[in-house]
Amino acid sequence: MKFYSISEVAAKFNIPESTLRYYDKKGLLPLLERDEAGRRLFSEDQISLLETIICLKNTNMPISGIKQYIEWVVEGATTIELRLEMMKNHKKAVLAEIAMMTESLKGIDLKITRYKKHIQEGKEK
Hints:
The chain is mainly alpha-helical. The chain has five helices and two strands. Strands 1-2 form a two-stranded antiparallel ribbon. A hairpin with a 5-residue loop joins strand 1 and strand 2 (40-41). The longest helix has 45 residues, at 80-124.
């Protein structure tokens, strides 16, 4: 099995090594292996799990929710229904946030239009 160092994984995901250490400290990487010097070693499975963690984090799931999800993953197949329900609820929250951001973007576009018009009118005088 191939393992990757923390610096390789940080580069792969374009995140700081400190973020990976933080995720480990918070219990989000429970099956992470270490070498004889105590350095973190990431397997393909850990990298796959990390992709999910980053996805959930990027969609504003709190660390506590991600931790619960990871615990259920580790527990195995008996938690699939719980994980499904969590993902469905998270998707609803993400869609609601997208809708709110889209609506707010209209207000920003309105301001941009006004400012451009104001600048153009100033140049014409």
